Amino acid sequence: MASGQNGEQGSHEEPDFTKAFQDLARGERTAAALENHLDALEKKIEELLAKADEEDRKRTEQRESKQDNVDSATSKPGADPV
């Protein structure tokens, strides 16, 4: 009787292990897909940040250039002070 119970118990455990491994494999595929999606998002964010930094740098250069022009115009002898 004990051997019958062990045999039944073994056959019940095997499908549970099979299902567990199938669930684990499905979870691994889902995790891999999420990682790929996150990598793509990270790349887009880095591109946007680089673009924003470049635009900020250009604006700063333009402001400095305008300020240099104003400074040089006001420092010329005979120039009208602003």
Annotate the secondary structure layout.
Layout: H1 2-75
Give Rg in angstroms: 35 Å
Shape: rod-shaped
Report the order of strands and helices. Answer: H
- Uncertain runs are none
| Helix/strand structural class | mainly alpha
First-residue to last-residue Cα separation: 107 Å
> How many alpha or pi helices?
1
Question: What keywords describe this structure?
Answer:
mainly alpha, about 80 residues
Write a structural description.
This protein has 82 residues and is mostly helical. The protein is built from one helix and no strands. It is rod-shaped and about 95 Å long.
Provide a quick synopsis of the model.
The chain has one helix and no strands. It is an all-alpha fold and about 80 residues long. The N and C termini lie far apart (about 105 Å).
